[in-house]
Design a protein that fits this description.
heterotrimer; A alpha/beta (373); B mainly alpha (282); C alpha/beta (334); B: 282 residues; mainly alpha; MetI-like fold; 12 helices; 0% strand; C: 334 residues; alpha/beta; Rossmann fold; 8-stranded mixed sheet; 4-stranded antiparallel sheet; globular
Chain lengths: 373, 282, 334
């Protein structure tokens, strides 16, 4: 059975849409979103470049305040006043720039080819409409069929997401369902029109861990069935490890690391990623003390100068305080926004010119032990 | 302190509310300073023949009434009565309402039911009717009695609102934390509940003042409130109503004063409500 | 009543907290005009014990009753039956004055750092409340104590003049801990203390709690739905489901070789930050049942995936029985 995390080897997949074969399904370039607040301008998303290929599962990891949710909203152009998507930002989906589309055209994309699953199942559903009608609404908006046809498809969707007694439930209301069931309904709404890409923003954070497992298994299965791509946004490293093939790590409105999932977990390069992994208690490793990242996330109205992580970074040196590092290539499709990468690269170059031995000493070692340079 | 400043900023943002505040303050100053500002003794009838029904003039800025009394002085002293009774009654009603509301909110389901169903019954009785009945039977009731009557017939809505708030706060985690620390009932009320109730009660009381002033004026107009010769805006209107076209200033002055006062209190109350909106406090 | 409790290292001690057969059932009226009466069986026959300077972890998902248990242990909620003994005395039988004295000794830290502090009190005032009630310090002495406590939890002294909304979640949580510590408790009930915090802040607060335990010799009843967090802090763990304890024992044994099917499913459901490991996943069908209508027999049987599940499971409720040294599970088949 193919692993849904993998992008398919051939360019064409069921539901790949209008993109040229081999071109990414979603391509975000230099996305910037600002919010006008009482305390100044908050640069919530400050230059994010992100790619999702057809059929693959990509993770976007970060803590609260890093801008990941705003990124999701920006893709669907759901950012409202006082938020503002800056000119120069590009969101190409299936070859079209979503930010440049007319209102009518973007509405044709939302819920249809590109769907969003929100975090809070309790508030994302309308309490006064029946479940069935909320699913049917999406279907009728994009695939003008009869009301009866839409209702039938809605019930089918409910069955697909594993809700028992789908017929009865379709006529019921959100408050009659548990959290897990509501999230399934949200998934049903999101998937009703068989989108090519689903952006799931913390889809299971509000749920119990056993329900979480169920929901994620469901999403996996549906993804395989429908050949969808998934952008999974979460702060949960475990979820990312188990469900994604590639990961982007976000901090303070920027991407700080980008890598294949296995590579990221075996050798995180950015000190923030390393810090996160060291700070999470794990079932499979018992540690005396959690290595907490000192300090806290700065407010979006006042990002620190230079590298935004430098006030909390154990390896910060002068250059970090003065100059913001760009996302530097680290080989094998990996990138990290850290001056240490350059330091390592130059040490590599030096080492290679001198003696061939001990090249690997300077690579980051596995997980939490990685502390030396 | 920063909270008060934030409050003031929000309040200041609504200009009508500030207007209301300014007017109320002016009224308070006028009422308190009546002896200073009044050109004459409100009860004095210096010349019932020559000075009767004089139109406004430099010596009598608002004219005189049919007993040659200076209308302006009567207006100012009448302000004392109206504002005094209004404020006192509103305050008393707020205290009773809050007290009952807290008792119902914190008490056992039985106490809660008893109190609230009692309030329901009381709300069914028409307030004005009760006031009229009591005052008609009690000739010459002193101002204190009027105040108490007005308060006792007006605390019900406050108690309901307070009870609802208290019931909700009861389950709040910081209240649980206080209980876990060993805070007793009194401590809970004083330190944790009252600060949360204060804004709501203050707003309710402010809005109530306007209503009470109108009620008191109405009662005085009917001859049941403040008895002549003591001035009250209500009985001044009574005095002047027969001569609306002849000597309009006698009735118009207190009438306008009433209008301005009630509107001002309502604007102030609304403004306070917006400024104190707990949703903004986070 | 438990005479003694066996710690994870095998030693026997007299328990500080001794909960015996505790049951907490609520009456609830629902439906139009409150016509429909139902009983919420939040906690049913729970027994547990915590020794001095010991941490007991309590895991469970929503609806399992762990929060009700926490509040009943503090007597913020009244019990229906059973006893909660602290240092030998039944908390629920104490008179108000004695109860108040006892409250010094058990304190609680809540989950939600936003709701657990009164938004209208400064942090300093919140911390001072405990000092005032129990007459531990007044005036300048109280101020000094507040500063010391703030320092102990890693907050600056001028935090005392700030209001909760000026601080981050992690800082508020620290303030809540300082408030609890002000009365010098011996047992701290932590009800999901880090669940609402970000990963990096979580680690800070967990480290703080561990340090405080070492420094002050505190006992913890650490409640969480996050198994990894509990594993980190608790050498002994109990698993709750639908108001009952279904498994309890030394953390190492319980996590490595869980005996109860629910514990097994729970552990398999936790995502682990290791992309390479392929663990067998037990997916539980359906939803956790509501505590209003617990199923007959074993409370877990409707969702249980154990191959040997049979009629006995649906008819007879299993009792906790020892399966390994110190580890007990309530399962007919495990």
């Amino acid at each position: 059975m193919s692993d849904p995390r993998d992008a398919p080897s051939s360019g064409a997949t069921p539901g790949a849409g209008g993109a040229a074969p081999g071109a990414p399904l979603l391509e975000i370039a230099d996305l910037r979103v600002t919010f006008a607040t009482g305390d100044g301008v908050a640069r919530a998303v400050d230059g994010v470049d992100l790619v999702v290929q057809a059929g693959e599962t990509v993770g976007l990891v970060g803590e609260s305040g890093c801008g990941k949710s705003v990124t999701a909203l920006a893709v669907l152009r759901l950012v409202e006043h006082p938020g503002h998507i800056a000119h120069g930002s590009r969101v190409r989906f299936e070859g079209r720039d979503l930010l440049a589309l007319a209102d009518r055209d973007i509405r044709a994309v939302r819920g249809n080819h590109l769907a969003l699953i929100f975090q809070e199942p309790a508030t994302a559903l309308n309490p006064v409409l029946t479940i069935g009608s909320q699913i049917a609404e999406v279907i009728r908006t994009h695939q003008h069929g009869s009301r009866a046809e839409a209702k039938r498809r809605a019930v089918e969707m409910l069955r697909t997401v594993g809700i028992p007694d789908a017929e009865q439930r379709a006529d019921g209301y959100a408050h009659q369902l548990s959290g897990g069931m509501r999230q399934r309904v949200l998934i049903a709404i999101a998937l009703a029109c068989r989108p090519h890409l689903v952006i799931a923003d913390e889809p299971t954070t509000a749920l119990d861990v056993t329900i979480q497992a169920e929901i994620l298994e469901l999403l996996d299965g549906l993804q395989r069935q429908m050949g969808m791509a998934v952008l999974l946004i979460t702060h949960n490293l475990g979820l990312v490890a188990e469900r994604t093939r590639r990961v982007y790590v976000m901090y303070a409105g920027q991407l700080v690391e980008e890598a294949g999932t296995e590579a990221l977990f075996s050798a995180p390069l950015h000190p923030y990623t390393q810090g996160l992994m060291a700070a999470v208690p794990r079932l499979d490793q018992l540690r005396e003390r959690l290595a907490a990242i000192p300090g806290q996330v700065p407010p979006a109205t006042a990002w620190p100068g230079g590298c935004r992580f430098h006030p909390r970074c154990p390896f910060a040196f002068d250059r970090c305080r003065a100059e913001m590092p760009p996302l530097l290539e680290c080989g094998e499709g990996r990138k990290a926004r850290c001056w240490l990468v350059e330091e390592r690269a130059s040490e590599h170059a030096d080492a290679r010119t001198s003696e061939p031995a001990d090249e690997r000493t300077h690579d980051g070692r596995r997980g939490s032990e990685s502390r030396s340079l | 302190m920063s909270r008060l400043r934030g409050l003031w900023a929000r309040f200041r943002a609504r200009r009508v509310a500030v207007v209301g505040l300014v007017v109320v303050v002016l009224l308070a100053v006028a009422a308190l300073g009546a002896p200073l500002f009044a050109p004459a003794d409100p009860l004095a009838q210096p010349d019932p023949v020559a000075l009767q029904n004089r139109p406004p003039s430099p010596e009598h800025p608002l004219g005189t009434d049919r007993f040659s009394r200076d209308v302006m002085s009567r207006l100012l002293y009448g302000a004392r009565v109206s504002l005094g009774i209004g404020a006192a009654a509103a305050l008393l009603a707020a205290v009773i309402g809050a007290g009952v509301g807290i008792a119902a909110g914190l008490g056992s389901p039985l106490v809660d039911q008893l109190l609230m169903r009692g309030v329901d019954v009381a709300l069914a009785l028409p307030r004005v009717f009760l006031l009229l009945l009591v005052l008609a039977l009690w000739e010459g009731a002193p101002a204190g009695v009027v105040i108490v009557l007005l308060a006792v017939t007006g605390w019900f809505p406050t108690s309901r609102v307070v009870r609802a708030l208290v019931r909700r706060l009861r389950e709040a985690e910081f209240v649980q934390a206080a209980r876990a620390l060993g805070t007793g009932r009194w401590g809970l009320v004083r330190r944790h509940l009252l600060p949360h109730l204060a804004p709501t009660v203050i707003v309710a009381a402010t809005l109530d003042v306007g209503n009470i002033i109108l009620l008191e004026s109405g009662l005085s107009y009917l001859g049941l409130g403040v008895r002549p010769p003591a001035p009250s805006w209500g009985n001044m209107i009574l005095d002047g109503k027969d001569q609306l076209f002849g000597t309009p200033w006698v009735a118009a002055a207190p009438g306008l004063a009433l209008l301005v006062t009630v509107v001002a209190f309502n604007l102030l109350g609304d403004g306070l409500q917006d400024a104190l909106d707990p949703r903004r406090e986070r | 009543m438990t005479e003694q409790v066996r710690l994870s290292d095998g030693t026997l001690v007299r328990p500080l907290l001794d909960v015996a057969d505790l049951t907490v059932h609520f009456h609830r009226r629902t439906g139009l005009f409150g016509s429909h009466r139902e009983i919420v069986q939040a906690v049913s026959g729970v027994s547990l014990a915590i020794g001095h300077k010991e941490t007991l972890g309590l895991v469970g998902e929503s609806g399992c009753g762990k929060t009700t248990l926490a509040r009943t242990v503090l007597r913020l909620v009244e019990r229906t039956s059973g006893t909660v003994r602290f240092d030998g005395q039944d908390l629920h039988a104490l008179a108000p004055a004695e109860l108040r004295r006892m409250r010094r000794r058990i304190q609680i830290v809540f989950q939600d750092p936003y709701a657990s502090l009164n938004p209208r009190l400064t942090i300093g005032a919140a911390i001072r409340e405990g000092l005032t009630i129990h007459k531990l310090a007044e005036g300048a002495a109280a101020d000094r104590r507040v500063r010391e406590l703030l320092d102990e939890v890693g907050l600056s002294a001028d935090a005392a003049d700030g209001y909760p909304h000026e601080f981050s979640g992690g800082q508020r949580q620290r303030a809540g801990i300082a408030r609890a510590l002000a009365v010098e408790p011996e047992l701290l009930v932590c009800d999901e203390p880090v669940s609402a915090l970000d990963v990096s802040v979580q680690a800070q607060v967990l480290n703080l709690l561990m340090d405080l335990q070492a420094r002050r010799g505190l006992s913890y009843l650490f409640i969480s739905h996050d198994l990894a967090v509990v594993r980190h802090v608790a050498p002994r763990v109990a698993v709750m489901y639908l108001g009952r304890i279904v498994e309890e024992g030394p953390a190492e044994e319980l996590y490595a070789r869980p005996r109860h099917p629910y514990t097994q499913a729970l552990l398999s459901a936790v995502p682990v930050p290791d992309p390479v490991s392929k663990r067998p996943r037990i997916v539980l069908p359906g939803d956790p049942p509501s505590p209003v209508n617990p199923p007959p027999g074993c409370p877990f049987h409707p969702r249980c995936q154990h191959p040997g599940k049979d009629a006995m499971c649906s008819e007879v409720r299993p009792e906790l029985a020892e399966r390994a040294p110190g580890l007990r599970a309530a399962c007919h088949k495990g």
